[in-house]
Amino acid sequence: MELLIKGGTVINPKTGVNEKLDILLKDNTIIAIEEDISPKNRKLIDARGMVVAPGFIDIHVHLREPGFEHKETIESGTESAVAGGFTTVACMPNTKPTIHSKEIVEFIKERVKKRGKANVLVIGSITKDLKGEELSDLDEMYEAGIVAISDDGKTPMQEEIMIKAFKKAKEFNIPLISHCEDHDISKDGSINEGKASKRTNIKGIPSAAEYLIVKRDLELCENTDSKLHIAHVSTKESVDLLRGAKSKGVNVTSEVAPHHFILTDDIITPENTYTKVNPPIRSQEDVDSIVCGILDGTIDIIATDHAPHDENSKRVVYDKAAFGITGLETAFSLSYTYLVLKNKLPLIRLIEMLTIKPAEIIGVDRGSLEVGKEADITILDLKEEYTIDSKEFYSKGKNTPFNGYRVMGKPVYTIVAGKIVYERGSGICL
């Protein structure tokens, strides 16, 4: 049976298409993109008044499996992904055991085949057990199919280790994704160091904990002529460093999460541990700088850093609570509301930051609507206004500081490999 998506505005940043077109799918492939394709004997999606985009790609997601299935599983995490319009996610390696061997890579791939609702790419750890002391078996993991390396959640502090890792990443032509945190500076901190830490008497994390490692890793990247991706940018200084490095031709890209371009530390109270995230929510000056970095292209993509937690990990005193925010199901709505509607980012740029740009960073042939390509598609209703309510999330993690926010824009259909996996009103389609 062929599936026809009819009457929508097709926005495809890779080719520059932004016009009303029909898209015809057969099996898992796009077979036509034209005006006025006949609906005869075809399953029909009426996309009039909606936007038809490439399936979203998030290269920074914590699926928690193996080891932390009480927080999230591959099944619940990919259900959350498709409900947010994401057809492909890349999972970070801070699982238990850590993704530091081909056996764990293969385990995840097998679980995805059995339980996954979206495409899942695997990121291998830089060091064994994320200890920063010994490189993981990067050769075997690369052969098993990892798309990047990272010790996300921690930063290898030894430059010798990082130089070896950068050289391996260059050999494989994959990015090293850096969680930039000087642990000696950030030690025992929970929120941004500044007015909020003084007001709440909660120990702060200085901006320097991030930007000094950004500076270090930019220099190492330049010296090794390799590929660096900076995760979850949160400070003005980091944006400035990235802008300068790009102007010099350093092979660096970066991402930002919605909570870092929307929220400021003014919202933090000792009782609201849903605001605890690493790196922390920063100042208005940092937010303004990040938005400028998005608008001028310094920051390349949006990634959620989807970090689901069980309630027992969050419903404790602030300094004991787990870091992390659940982000997959709110990412588009928040980005559309605060970047496109509020800050006038062109819609095609937002879609680019969620599709072809992350695909290019991790080197996968996804993120575009073209004849002959696999049919990963997201259909959006930009006129839908709703209130965020984490009780409605498919993710096990309900930990979001955005509960009660009124936002615009929502995924209506998510199609993975030609199959409808999410439909508004019907939910997850098995």
CATH class assignment of the largest domain: Alpha Beta
- How many strand units? 19
Biggest β-sheet strands, sense, barrel: 9 strands, mixed
Radius of gyration: 21 Å
State the end-to-end distance.
17 Å
Oligomer: single chain
CATH architecture of the largest domain: Alpha-Beta Barrel
CATH topology of the largest domain: TIM Barrel
Under CATH, the homologous superfamily of the largest domain reads Metal-dependent hydrolases
Overall, the morphology is: globular
Portion in strands: 15-25%
**Which structural class is indicated by helix and strand composition?**
alpha/beta
Overall number of structural domains: 2
Helix count, DSSP H or I runs of 4 or more residues? 14
Summed over residues and divided by their number, the pLDDT gives a mean of 97
What are the low-pLDDT stretches, counting only 5+ consecutive residues below 50?
none
Percent of residues in helical segments?
Answer: 25-40%
Key attributes of the depicted protein:
single chain, 430 residues, alpha/beta, Urease, subunit C, domain 1, TIM Barrel, nine-stranded mixed β-sheet, eight-stranded parallel β-sheet, 19 strands, 31% helix
If you had to describe this structure to a student in words, what would you say it looks like?
The protein folds into two domains: 2-52 and 373-383 and 406-428, Urease, subunit C, domain 1; 55-362, Metal-dependent hydrolases (TIM Barrel). By secondary structure, it is an alpha/beta fold. It contains 14 helices and 19 strands. The protein has helices spanning 74-83, 102-115, 138-144, 159-172, 183-186, 195-200, 208-224, 236-248, 258-262, 284-295, 311-314, 331-341, 347-354, 356-362; strands spanning 2-12, 17-26, 29-34, 43-46, 51-54, 56-61, 86-91, 119-124, 148-150, 176-178, 191-192, 204-205, 228-230, 252-256, 301-302, 377-387, 406-416, 419-423, 427-428. A hairpin with a 3-residue loop joins strand 18 and strand 19.
